[in-house]
Design goal:
Number of helices: 11
Helix content: 40-55%
CATH architecture: 3-Layer(aba) Sandwich
Structural class: alpha/beta
CATH class: Alpha Beta
CATH topology: Rossmann fold
Number of strands: 8
Bound molecules: D-malate
Oligomer: single chain
Length: 267
Amino acid sequence: MKHTLLSNGLRIAYRSDGVAGGLPLVLLHGFCEDSAVWNDFIVPIKSLHIIRVDLPGFGGSDLPLVPGMDVYADAVCAVLNDLSVEKCVLVGHSMGGYAALEFAEKYPERLSGLGLFHSHPFEDTAERKDARRRGIEMLQSGKRDLYVAQLFPGLFAGAFAKANPPIIAAQIAKGKRQSAEAIIAALEGMITRKDHRETLRNAACPVLFLLGTEDSIIPPEQGLQAAVLPDLADVHLLPGVGHMGMFEATERCAEIVRRFWEFCANR
Ligand code: MLT
């Protein structure tokens, strides 16, 4: 694990694997996770230079002073600067995709490709904001473990969850290691995040959409609506997959991301 600092002194933890030199693939984790969520996913694509960031508050990174997707985007920028990387292909899972969109708006010149892995550019609905506020109350009343235990089973497609209880148990155990403060900050950041449809319309790089037909968090219809926005989109709708393709269809998702990276690297 390596570390760098934001301009306000916050420590950002990240992993850099593979041989540096080519175009790096940067992976951002989702809500209640950290960079270790990609451990199995990167095995089939380990010939690439892969950078995985712990978003502020999660894993080994310090809690943001003010919640928001912009501090996540700044953390990615700080990591790229630390490694003297000018351009990358940035792929974000779910909340990581929201952060990647913020990065795309703030630092478009640093992107050769943008990937939304079970993610979309729309802001929260009023119902979603209310549900997140109820989550914040639960976390503030000391029920972090219960919150995390209730969260993860619903992220996977039903059939996969039934057949793979140890994978879900492992994600719950890891989620319980994230602090309640980091989870609250992430919820606040997601509530206040902006709509990024314009960011996609303006994207100068190719955009990957990886969607699951069984995803109850990011319904595929929403992803498909967004996929018509950029000039150049690579769209994959995975049958039977929920919100956690990196576990539910590891090799297939890794191959999709590898091919997208290759396309971006050779343009
Ligand atoms: C995630 O997996 O990052 C979150 O479920 C995204 C969300 O709640 O919108």
